[in-house]
Specification:
Length: 139
């Protein structure tokens, strides 16, 4: 029991204050206290909260009514926007496939190197026959 740095049964290791300060610093640096609540317009709430200030729609004055209408307008406007207006680039891997809808080079349909459409195939011929024989599709 002569070494004070080693842990033996029944005794505690000495507390390293620098290590303790580092642990506390890393835990506290990600915490933020907000004084103003800003609702997330993009998320859809599962249920309203009866105790939440923004869900209590008691409009006694004209100013409060305008505030509620402005809130509803902001929610409707944000939900109607697509991902192109929300993000500058694709946020997920699935958005990459439809993100860039314009071709990199303008396509010249007379240039046979880049444009080779199939004129006819057995599948398209059968599909045309099926569509023409369908009585519901006729005007």
């Amino acid at each position: 029991m002569g070494d004070k740095g080693k842990c033996t049964f029944g005794t505690r290791m000495p507390i390293d204050i620098h290590m303790l300060n580092e642990i506390i610093y890393r835990e506290v640096k990600n915490f933020r206290n907000y004084k103003i609540y800003r609702p997330n317009f993009g998320s859809i709430p599962v249920a309203t909260k009866f105790y939440a200030a923004h869900d209590q729609l008691k409009a006694e004055s004209k100013e409060q009514t305008e505030k509620v209408d402005n809130y509803h307008h902001n929610v409707a406007q944000t939900r109607s926007m697509g991902p192109h207006s929300k993000y500058p680039s694709p946020a997920t891997e699935n958005q990459v496939y439809g993100w860039y809808f314009k071709p990199l080079l303008p396509m010249d349909r007379n240039d046979r190197r880049f444009y080779n459409p199939k004129k006819e195939s057995t599948h398209t011929k059968i599909e045309i026959i099926i569509l023409m024989s369908n009585p519901k599709s006729k005007p």
